[in-house]
C-alpha cells in the first residue's frame, strides 16, 4: 500500500501531471495576473463564474443530444441524426429555434412574476455550482457551510416553480406547480437527511472537506462513502430524492404531458421556455455533482493507481455517468401517480433515511473493526425488506369510490 | 422485494440499448428520404385519370359522365362536359371532359369516385410527395396533371390493372362480336331482302344502351376483389 | 455600517412594506420572500453563514411556500373587494409599535450588557453544533418537542378530515 501510494505520489509530483491536473486553476491565475492587484480576488471569482456559466450550458447542449439518441436506442430507434454529423448540431438548431420563436405572454398573466420566474430558477440553480468542488482546488467558493448553501439554493428554486405556475393564470400551470412544489418539499426532506449522514461521518458541511475525508485508499481501493452500508443506503435514497427533486422521470408528474400539457411551463415559449429547460438540466447536473461529491469521492480517482488522470476528468466523468443513469431510468420507468409519489416519500424513504441516520451514528461510535460492517448491514437490509414489505405492499383496489360525485 | 421490478426493467432497456448497436434487426427505422420501402400495392393517395396509348388527350378514358362528381362526398371534383365527341376505347363517339379538376386539399382519399366510375377511367395513385408552396393553385390538379398512362397504372397496381384490362378487353370483344353479329345479320338481311337499309344503325344504338349498364354492373361486382384495399 | 448594509436594509424594509401594502395576497407573499432574502443577505453580510443559509432554506424554501400554499388552498388569491386596510388599523398600529418598542429595548439593552470587543468571533458550523447540543440543549429539546407536538396535531387534523369525508 505504501509503495502504491508512493508511486502515485511520484506521479503526482511529476510537473506534467500536476499541470494537467491544475490546468484550469493555472489558467485562471494566469488570466487574473492581467488585472490590477486590487481587484484580483474579484476577478478570480468572476472568471470562475464565467467558466461555470459556459461549461454547464455546453454540457446541457451535449446532454440533450445524447439523451435523445440514448432514448432512441433504448426504444430501438436511431434518434436525431439529421443536423450535422450524427445529429450533433441538433442543440444548435434547437437553440436557434427557441431564440427566434415568438415570446407569448398570456393576456391575463401576471407579467412581472411571469418574467421573473425563469430568471430566478436559472440564477438559483447556477448558484448551486459555486460550492461544488469540480477538481483538486477547483471550487469557486470554499464555504464553511457549503452544503447548507447548496440546499438553500435548491429550496429557492421551488419558489420560482410556484411563481411560474401561478403567474401564468392557467389551470394546467397551476396544477403542475402545486404538484411540483409538493413533490419537491417532500423529497427535499429526504434529500437533506440522506446528506446529513455523510455530514455526520465527515464532520463538516464544507464540500471540499467532505471530499478530503474520502481521500484514502486501502490497497488501491478508495474509501468512498458509497462503499459503506450506511453510505449505500444513503445514496440509494439520495438518488431517488434527487430524481424527484429535479422532476425527472419517473417523478415527472409536474409536467405529465398526458394530463397537464407541460405543467408549470405550459404558458412559456421561446427563450423563457429554453431557460426552464436549461434550469431543469442544470439542476440535474448540480444534484449529480452533489451526489458524486457526497458518496462517490468527488474528484478522486476510483483506484489509487489512476491518480495521474486529472481530477476534473474524474469529476465530470462521474457526473456524466450519473446523467447516463438518469436517462436510462427515464427510458425505463413509467410515471408515478400522485398518491404513490407521496406514499413513497413519506412512508418508505423518510423512515428509511431516519433509520439510516441512527445506523450512521452507530457506525461512528462502534469504532473500527468488522463488527460494525455486519451490524449495520444487517440492520439496513432488514429494514429495507421490512419497510418494502409493509409500506409498499400492494393495496387491494376495489371499484373506485368518488368522494363527491355520489 | 421492493425494487426488483425496476432492476428487471433497467436490464431490459439496457439490452435494447446495446442490442440496437449490435443487431441490425432491432432497428426497424427506415431513414425515409434516402431509404425507401416500396409502397404496398393497395396503397392509395389521390385519384388520377387513366389514358390509353401515348397521347393523354386522345386516349383519356373518362367520358365526362359526371357520376364521380356527384358521388364524391366532399365534392372536390369539378367536371365540364365537352360539346363535341371523340371515340372511346371501343370506337364509340363519346363526350370527354373539357375540364376535370380535383382539389386534393379537399379530397379525402375515399376511393368512392373509383368505385362508381363505369368506364375504369379514374384510379387511385400511390404518389404521396405532393407538398407545394402554393396551397390554392398547387393543390388543384387539372386534367393534364391528373392524367397517367395505363402503363403507369400497371406499374403501381399490377394485379388490379390486369383485371381491369381483362375486363375491358372482354367488353370490347363482346361489343365487337355484337357489332359483327349485327353487321352479319344486317348483311344477311340486306342480302335476303335488301329493302331496309336503316337496320344496322338501329342495332348499333341499342347495343350502346345495353353495354353501359352492363359495364357498370360488371365493375360493381368485381371491384371489391381488385380495389377494395 | 457600510453602504451595503443600508442597501440590504432598504431591500428588506421595502419587501416588508410591500408585503403589508400590496393588494394581492400572492404578491404580498412574494414580497415577504424578498424580505426574507434581504434578512438572509444581512446575516451573510455579518459573516453569519449558517444563520443566513438556514434563513434561506427554512424561510424561503419552507415558510414562504407554506404561506403560498395556504393562500391558494383557501382561495385567498382573489382580489379583495374593498381596501386592504381593516377598520381597526389604528389599534394594529399601536400593537405593532408596542412590539417594536419591546424588541428595540431588548436589543439595545443587550448591546450594553454584552462586552463590546472589536474582534469578530469566527463561528464555524462546528461551534454552532457544539453549542446547540451543549449549552443550549434544553431549548433545543423543547423546540423539538414543540415541533413533534405540532406534527402530531397536524396528522390528527388530517386524519379527522378524512374520516368526516367518508
Ligand atoms: S377519392 Fe373520394 S374524395 Fe377524393 S375525389 Fe374520389 S370520391 Fe372525391
Ligand atoms: S365517373 Fe368516370 S367517366 Fe364518369 S366523369 Fe367520373 S371519371 Fe369520367
Annotation, overall tally of beta strands of chain A: 2
Strand order of the largest sheet of chain B: 6-1-8
CATH topology of one domain in chain B: Alpha-Beta Plaits
Terminal CA distance of chain A? 73 Å
Ligands: iron/sulfur cluster
pLDDT under 50 segments of chain A (min length 5)?
Answer: 1-8
The computed structural class of chain A is mainly alpha
Helix-strand pattern of chain B: HEHHEEEEHEEHEHHH
CATH arch. level architecture of one domain in chain B:
2-Layer Sandwich
Overview of the structural elements:
The complex is a heterotrimer of chains A (406), B (229) and C (166). Chain A has 406 residues and is mostly helical. Chain A is built from 15 helices and two strands. Chain A has two domains: 21-89, no CATH class; 101-394, no CATH class. In chain A, helix 4 (40-74) packs across helix 12 (270-295) and helix 6 runs parallel beside helix 12 (270-295). In chain A, a hairpin with a 2-residue loop joins strand 1 and strand 2 (221-222). Chain A has helices at residues 2-13, 15-21, 23-32, 40-74, 90-100, 111-128, 146-167, 171-202, 207-213, 229-245, 257-260, 270-295, 311-332, 338-366, 370-391; strands at residues 217-218, 221-222. Chain B has a domain at 47-171: Alpha-Beta Plaits (2-Layer Sandwich). Chain B is elongated and about 105 Å long. Chain B is an alpha+beta fold. Helices cover 47% and strands 13% of the residues of chain B. Chain B has eight helices and eight strands. Residues 199-229 of chain B have low confidence and may be disordered. The longest helix of chain B has 35 residues, at 158-192. In chain B, the strands form three sheets. Chain B has a three-stranded mixed beta sheet with strand order 6-1-8. In chain C, 77% of the residues lie in helices and 0% in strands. Chain C contains six helices and no strands. Chain C is globular, with a radius of gyration of 20 Å. Chains A and C meet through helix 7 and helix 8 of A and helix 2 and helix 3 of C. The structure holds iron/sulfur cluster (2 copies). One iron/sulfur cluster binds at residues 62-68, 79, 116-117, 119, 121-122 of chain B.
Amino acid at each position: 500500500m505504501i509503495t502504491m501510494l508512493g508511486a502515485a505520489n511520484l506521479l503526482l509530483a511529476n510537473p506534467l501531471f500536476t499541470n494537467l491536473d491544475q490546468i484550469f486553476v493555472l489558467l485562471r491565475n494566469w488570466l487574473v495576473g492581467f488585472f490590477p492587484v486590487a481587484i484580483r480576488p474579484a476577478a478570480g471569482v468572476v472568471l470562475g463564474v464565467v467558466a461555470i456559466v459556459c461549461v454547464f450550458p455546453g454540457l446541457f447542449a451535449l446532454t440533450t443530444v445524447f439523451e435523445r439518441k440514448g432514448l432512441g436506442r433504448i426504444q430501438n430507434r436511431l434518434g436525431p441524426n439529421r443536423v450535422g454529423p450524427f445529429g450533433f448540431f441538433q442543440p444548435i438548431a434547437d437553440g436557434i429555434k427557441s431564440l427566434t420563436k415568438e415570446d407569448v405572454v398570456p393576456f391575463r398573466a401576471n407579467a412581472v412574476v411571469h418574467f421573473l420566474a425563469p430568471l430566478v430558477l436559472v440564477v438559483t440553480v447556477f448558484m448551486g455550482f459555486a460550492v461544488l468542488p469540480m477538481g483538486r482546488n477547483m471550487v469557486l467558493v470554499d464555504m464553511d457551510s457549503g452544503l447548507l448553501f447548496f440546499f438553500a439554493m435548491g429550496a429557492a428554486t421551488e419558489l420560482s416553480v410556484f411563481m411560474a405556475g401561478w403567474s401564468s393564470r392557467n389551470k394546467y400551470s397551476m396544477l403542475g406547480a402545486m404538484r411540483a412544489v409538493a413533490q419537491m418539499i417532500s423529497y427535499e426532506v429526504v434529500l437533506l437527511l440522506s446528506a446529513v449522514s455523510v455530514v455526520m461521518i465527515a464532520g463538516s458541511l464544507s464540500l471540499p472537506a467532505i471530499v478530503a475525508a474520502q481521500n484514502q485508499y486501502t490497497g488501491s481501493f478508495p474509501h468512498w462513502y458509497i462503499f459503506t452500508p450506511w453510505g449505500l443506503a444513503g445514496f440509494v435514497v439520495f438518488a431517488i430524492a434527487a430524481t424527484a427533486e429535479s422532476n425527472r422521470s419517473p417523478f415527472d408528474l409536474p409536467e405529465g404531458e398526458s394530463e397537464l400539457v407541460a405543467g408549470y411551463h405550459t404558458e412559456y415559449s421561446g427563450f423563457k421556455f429554453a431557460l426552464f429547460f436549461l434550469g431543469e438540466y442544470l439542476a440535474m447536473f448540480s444534484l449529480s455533482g452533489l451526489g458524486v461529491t457526497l458518496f462517490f469521492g468527488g474528484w478522486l480517482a476510483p483506484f489509487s493507481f489512476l491518480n495521474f488522470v486529472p481530477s476534473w476528468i474524474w469529476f465530470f466523468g462521474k457526473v456524466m455517468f450519473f446523467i447516463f443513469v438518469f436517462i436510462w431510468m427515464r427510458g425505463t420507468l413509467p410515471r408515478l401517480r400522485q398518491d404513490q409519489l407521496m406514499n413513497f416519500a413519506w412512508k418508505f424513504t423518510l423512515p428509511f433515511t431516519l433509520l439510516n441516520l441512527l445506523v450512521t451514528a452507530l457506525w461512528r461510535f462502534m469504532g473500527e473493526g468488522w463488527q460494525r460492517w455486519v451490524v449495520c448491514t444487517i440492520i439496513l437490509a432488514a429494514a429495507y425488506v421490512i419497510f418494502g414489505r409493509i409500506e409498499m405492499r400492494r393495496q387491494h383496489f376495489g371499484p373506485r369510490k368518488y368522494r363527491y360525485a355520489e | 422485494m421492493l425494487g426488483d421490478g425496476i432492476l428487471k426493467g433497467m436490464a431490459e432497456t439496457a439490452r435494447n440499448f446495446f442490442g440496437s448497436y449490435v443487431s441490425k434487426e432491432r432497428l426497424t427505422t427506415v431513414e425515409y428520404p434516402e431509404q425507401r420501402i416500396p409502397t404496398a400495392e393497395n396503397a392509395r393517395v389521390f385519384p388520377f385519370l387513366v389514358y390509353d396509348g401515348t397521347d393523354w388527350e386522345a386516349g383519356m378514358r373518362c367520358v365526362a359522365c359526371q357520376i364521380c362528381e356527384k358521388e364524391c362526398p366532399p365534392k372536390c371534383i369539378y367536371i365540364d362536359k365537352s360539346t363535341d365527341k371523340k371515340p372511346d376505347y371501343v370506337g364509340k363517339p363519346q363526350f370527354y371532359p373539357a375540364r376535370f379538376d380535383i382539389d386534393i386539399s379537399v379530397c379525402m382519399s375515399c376511393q368512392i369516385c373509383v368505385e362508381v366510375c363505369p368506364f375504369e377511367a379514374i384510379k387511385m395513385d400511390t404518389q404521396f410527395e405532393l407538398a407545394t408552396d402554393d396551397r390554392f393553385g398547387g393543390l388543384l390538379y387539372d386534367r393534364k396533371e391528373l392524367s397517367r398512362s395505363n402503363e403507369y397504372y400497371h406499374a403501381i397496381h399490377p394485379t388490379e390493372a390486369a383485371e381491369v384490362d381483362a375486363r375491358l378487353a372482354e367488353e370490347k370483344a363482346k361489343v365487337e362480336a355484337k357489332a359483327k353479329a349485327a353487321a352479319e345479320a344486317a348483311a344477311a338481311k340486306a342480302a335476303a331482302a335488301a329493302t331496309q337499309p336503316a337496320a344496322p344503325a338501329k342495332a348499333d344504338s341499342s347495343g350502346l344502351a345495353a353495354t353501359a349498364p352492363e359495364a357498370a354492373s360488371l365493375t360493381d361486382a368485381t371491384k371489391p376483389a381488385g380495389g377494395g384495399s | 455600517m457600510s453602504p451595503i448594509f443600508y442597501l440590504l436594509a432598504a431591500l428588506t424594509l421595502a419587501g416588508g412594506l410591500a408585503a403589508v401594502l400590496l393588494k394581492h395576497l400572492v404578491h404580498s407573499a412574494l414580497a415577504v420572500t424578498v424580505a426574507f432574502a434581504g434578512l438572509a443577505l444581512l446575516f451573510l453580510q455579518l459573516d453569519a453563514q449558517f444563520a443566513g443559509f438556514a434563513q434561506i432554506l427554512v424561510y424561503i424554501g419552507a415558510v414562504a411556500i407554506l404561506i403560498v400554499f395556504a393562500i391558494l388552498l383557501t382561495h385567498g388569491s382573489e382580489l379583495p373587494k374593498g381596501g386592504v386596510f381593516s377598520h381597526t388599523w389604528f389599534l394594529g398600529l399601536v400593537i405593532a409599535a408596542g412590539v417594536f418598542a419591546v424588541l428595540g429595548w431588548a436589543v439595545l439593552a443587550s448591546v450594553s450588557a454584552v462586552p463590546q470587543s472589536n474582534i469578530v468571533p469566527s463561528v464555524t458550523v462546528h461551534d454552532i453544533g457544539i453549542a446547540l447540543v451543549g449549552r443550549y440543549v434544553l431549548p433545543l429539546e423543547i423546540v423539538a418537542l414543540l415541533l413533534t407536538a405540532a406534527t402530531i396535531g397536524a396528522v390528527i387534523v388530517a386524519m379527522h378530515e378524512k374520516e368526516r369525508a367518508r
